[in-house]
């Protein structure tokens, strides 16, 4: 088995390469091509890939024409609340498990050879790659207009007549604002519009339902590690705020504190690559039943519909992208003009959550913006900076981020 890191822009060829790698029993690690050298080294060091692909020619070299069923899931990376990148590894699947993995997605989302999947999110993310690969496995086509732009996405809708798309709420907000200016395109070709990645504002959700064909819009809740629920928007209308019921083949349970656990089929199990301690802390077993948690909190109603009460304590979801404060703090602390720093999120009308940094030290905002640009991918760079004499802390030394959030709500964002 070879582990192959892919650090190239998304394209149809990219999805074909992922399919090829998985079909022969090797493992792709999809990564953001915007990662700095510092970030690449930090992520890939613990994973020790056998090959790192950084060009179109190298991508072609790992792509096969003869492709069967994927024998695994791609190894996507998550930093978790520790800020240390971890590879989520499904293990190699036998024939029955490989077929079941593909069948679950096809049965839930109805992928068919007539589908045209509009790709709005970067393909190194797990959800858009899963939808694109599921479409190709069924014999469908992809429409990939490039880095998200409302005008470009609208042109693709008019040109390619897509039947499916995955999006995050920020995509919808920007599309709707654009359509307010230029008019709503013909959306009748869509049979499936699925959104996830961040809480969707109710007004955005209602407009989504209003504009797209009846029965076509869905929300789902999941993580890099695995999928929990799916929910038609009509169900959301009846139960505002829900993210749906457990996907087929899964069972949800809650601890007394609301921690969400999901029991999954064997083919959906995973480990954190080369991290048995973290793996053990994430799973619990009872006989032959196994459930995992990512530390999110929620409530279940009498009919099994899940409502989220909070994401992981420190996780920031900005524009549908996960940003882990500890990772950003670790990078900023390496600047010689930073004595202390706390990174946190505040609500933002455009991004869902805005990344903010409170800094103690001599560095200026301009210096830190330049430093962040050289060491952090764009979603991780703070948009708001505050400069303090000291960080507010509890008696045990924990930063009181709620105090910082209150201060930052009135600070104008930039960058």
Question: What does the model show?
Answer:
With 415 residues, the chain is of the alpha/beta class. It has two domains: 3-310, 3-Layer(aba) Sandwich (Rossmann fold); 316-408, ANL, C-terminal domain (GMP Synthetase, Chain A, domain 3). The protein contains 13 helices and 24 strands. The strands form six sheets. A nine-stranded mixed β-sheet has the order 7-6-8-9-10-11-12-19-18, sandwiched between helices. Helix 1 (12-23) packs across helix 5 (126-137), helix 6 (150-160) packs across helix 7 (169-182) and helix 7 crosses helix 8. The longest helix has 15 residues, at 95-109. It starts with a strand and ends in a 7-residue tail after the last helix. The model has no long low-confidence stretch (mean pLDDT 92).
Q: Using the coordinates shown, work out and report the CATH topology of the largest domain.
A: Rossmann fold
What radius of gyration results from the CA coordinates? Answer: 21 Å
CATH C-level class of the largest domain: Alpha Beta
DSSP summary, beta strand count: 24
Instruction: Specify the overall morphology.
Output: globular
Quaternary state reads: single chain
Number of domains: 2
**At the fourth CATH level, what is the homologous superfamily of the largest domain?**
ANL, N-terminal domain
Helix/strand/pairing class, anyone? alpha/beta
Distance from N terminus to C terminus (CA atoms, Å) equals 43 Å
Major pleated sheet: 9 strands, mixed
Instruction: Tally the helices.
Output: 13
What are the low-pLDDT stretches, counting only 5+ consecutive residues below 50?
A: none
Mean pLDDT across the residues is: 92
Secondary-structure arrangement, i.e. CATH architecture of the largest domain? 3-Layer(aba) Sandwich
Range of helix content: 25-40%
What portion of the residues fall into strands of 2 or more residues? 25-35%
Strand order of the largest sheet: 7-6-8-9-10-11-12-19-18
């Amino acid at each position: 088995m070879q582990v192959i890191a892919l650090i190239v822009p998304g394209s149809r060829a990219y999805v074909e390469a992922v399919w090829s790698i998985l079909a022969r029993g090797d493992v792709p690690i999809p990564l953001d091509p915007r990662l700095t050298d510092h970030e690449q080294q930090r992520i890939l060091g613990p994973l020790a890939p056998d090959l790192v692909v950084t060009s179109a020619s190298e991508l072609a070299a790992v792509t096969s024409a003869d492709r069967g069923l994927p024998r695994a899931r791609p190894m996507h990376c998550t930093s978790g609340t520790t800020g240390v990148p971890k590879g989520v590894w499904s293990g190699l699947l036998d024939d029955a498990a490989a077929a079941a993995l593909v069948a679950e997605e096809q049965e839930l989302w109805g992928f068919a050879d007539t589908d045209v999947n509009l790709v709005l999110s970067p393909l190194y993310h797990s959800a858009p790659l899963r939808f694109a690969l599921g479409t190709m496995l069924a014999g469908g086509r992809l429409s990939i207009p490039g880095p998200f732009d409302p005008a470009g996405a609208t042109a693709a809708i008019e040109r390619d007549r897509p039947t499916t798309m995955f999006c995050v709420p920020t995509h919808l907000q920007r599309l709707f604002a654009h359509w307010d200016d230029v008019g709503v395109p013909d959306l009748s070709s869509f049979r499936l519009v699925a959104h996830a990645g961040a809480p969707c504002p109710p007004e955005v959700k209602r407009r989504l339902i209003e504009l797209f064909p009846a029965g076509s819009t869905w929300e789902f809740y999941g993580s890099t590690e695995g999928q929990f629920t799916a929910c038609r928007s009509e169900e959301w209308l009846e139960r505002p705020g829900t993210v749906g019921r457990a996907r087929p083949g899964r069972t949800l349970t809650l601890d007394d504190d609301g921690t969400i656990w999901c029991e999954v089929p064997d083919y959906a199990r995973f480990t954190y690559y080369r991290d048995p301690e973290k793996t053990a802390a994430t799973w619990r077993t009872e006989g032959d039943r196994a459930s995992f948690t990512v530390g999110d909190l929620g409530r279940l109603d009498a009919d099994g519909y899940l409502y989220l009460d909070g994401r992981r304590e420190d996780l920031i979801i900005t524009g549908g992208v996960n940003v882990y404060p500890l990772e950003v703090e670790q990078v900023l602390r390496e600047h010689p003009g930073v004595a202390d720093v706390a990174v946190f999120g505040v609500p933002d009308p455009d991004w869902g959550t805005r990344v903010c940094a409170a800094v103690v030290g001599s560095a200026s905002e301009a210096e830190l913006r330049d430093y962040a640009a050289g060491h952090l991918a764009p979603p991780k760079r703070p948009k708001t900076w505050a400069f303090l004499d000291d960080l507010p802390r509890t008696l045990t030394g924990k930063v009181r981020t709620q105090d910082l959030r209150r201060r930052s709500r009135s600070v104008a964002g930039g960058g």
